[in-house]
Amino acid sequence: MNKITKQSFAIQFMGQHRPKQAVLFSILLRRTAANPSRKLEDMDMIEFRNVSKRYANGTVGLNNVNLKINEGEMVVIVGLSGAGKSTLLRTINKLHDTTSGEILIGGKSVTAARGRELRLIRRGIGMIFQSFNLVKRSTVLRNVLSGRVGYHSTLRTVFGLFPRHDIELALDALSRVNIREKAFSRADQLSGGQQQRVSIARALAQEAKIILADEPVASLDPLTTRQVMDDLKRINQELSITTIVNLHHIDLAREYATRIIGMRAGEIVFDGRPEEATDEAFAHIYGRSIFEAELLGAES
Ligand SMILES: Nc1ncnc2c1ncn2[C@@H]1O[C@H](COP(=O)(O)OP(=O)(O)OP(=O)(O)O)[C@@H](O)[C@H]1O
Ligand SMILES: [Mg+2]
Fold first, then answer.
1. Measuring from atom 10 of ligand 1, which residue has the nearest CA?
2. Which of 31-45, 123-137, 211-225 has the lowest mean pLDDT?
3. Residue 45 domain-assigned (yes or no)
4. How many folded domains does the chain comprise?
5. Quick check: is 201 in a domain?
6. What tens digit of pLDDT does each residue of 60-113 get?
7. 299 C-alpha to ligand 2 centroid (Å)
8. Is residue 62 domain-resident?
9. Residue pLDDT, tens place only, 153-196
């Protein structure tokens, strides 16, 4: 079962079975649970070495990318549609294979990782998507708990048997994004901004060292956009979680990033501090003058 399927199935199962059954399964499974105690150390720095990605149809997603991202950075990636932002993000946890080159996290090769090693790497990386990727008919708490599936055996999580420690972690995570009181609401009863905070809480419950957010605010209104970006920034600062965010709005990139990376046609064409990302720099990244709407960003 792939990870998203496993998460969804575990959450749905929990919704359909009574606690007594769960306890019985818990006793059974405690004996068979894998021991996931080994932790990946130093999952701090992400390094791309001459990385290229060519899709099956020949399209170039990344062209010889060299990049180092340090622990605790809040990197915003900008570029026109098709520039390669999502491709870059997805190669970091091997959602996309690369064609050549190598990607390292804390000195360990993601490109070479397989099986258990790859699962351990992925466990340390939280993904946040534009569409939230929640199981809408399940509770907020169950969605957040799905961030824990990488720490337990498949059987255990399929039956939704999470230890008390996990539930405490999940509730703490919800507190951090200020929606603790929504823990027992159904996910689809929350606003878009609240749903995105649930997905941030899921990454926190996962104890991710790295958060990859692909257009996390593209579906949100300007006010909610800022709340979600504030959450991401606060978590980045308080927990030193290395955060990489793809964004379309120039103002947001300047306001929230500690570093801005500009992409065009699969290449990095700008890499600098927010104050260096002038209108001229953006015109260079985009290969054309910037539009008013792009400048006004979330304040429009
Ligand atoms: N699965 C795929 N198969 C073939 N080509 C793809 C695939 N995914 C992306 N591409 C192509 O790779 C290039 C980079 O795409 P990518 O999705 O990384 O861009 P992006 O910067 O995230 O764009 P957007 O801002 O629209 O999300 C584009 O030319 C795109 O058409
Ligand atoms: Mg994209």
1. 61
2. 31-45
3. no
4. 1
5. yes
6. 999 999 999 999 999 999 999 999 999 999 999 999 999 999 999 999 999 999
7. 22
8. no
9. 766 666 667 888 999 999 999 999 999 999 999 999 999 999 99
Residues paired with residue 130 on neighbouring β-strands, in sequence order:
none
Give 83 Cα–ligand 2 centroid separation in angstroms. Answer: 8
Ligand 1 atom, smallest distance to 266 CA:
14
Domain that holds residue 206: 3-36+71-101+110-299
Domain assignment present for residue 53? The answer is no
pLDDT of residue 135 exceeding 90, the answer is yes
Instruction: Enumerate the H helices of the chain as residue ranges.
Output: 3-16, 19-32, 85-92, 115-123, 140-145, 154-158, 164-176, 192-205, 222-239, 250-256, 279-286, 292-296
* Residue 46: other Cβ atoms inside 10 A: 23
Q: Can you give the CATH number for the domain in which 145 is found?
A: 3.40.50.300
Q: Which residue has the tokens 């007594």?
A: 20
* Residue from 128, 130, 131, 145 nearest 184 by CA: 145
195 closest CA partner among 186, 206, 207: 186
Nearest ligand by distance to the CA of 248 = 1
Cβ(53)–Cβ(60) below 8 Å? yes
Pocket of ligand 1 (CB under 6 A): 55, 57, 59, 61, 79, 81-87
The backbone torsions φ and ψ at residue 68, rounded to the nearest 5 degrees and listed phi first, read: -125, 130
Block residue for tokens 């709005």: 249
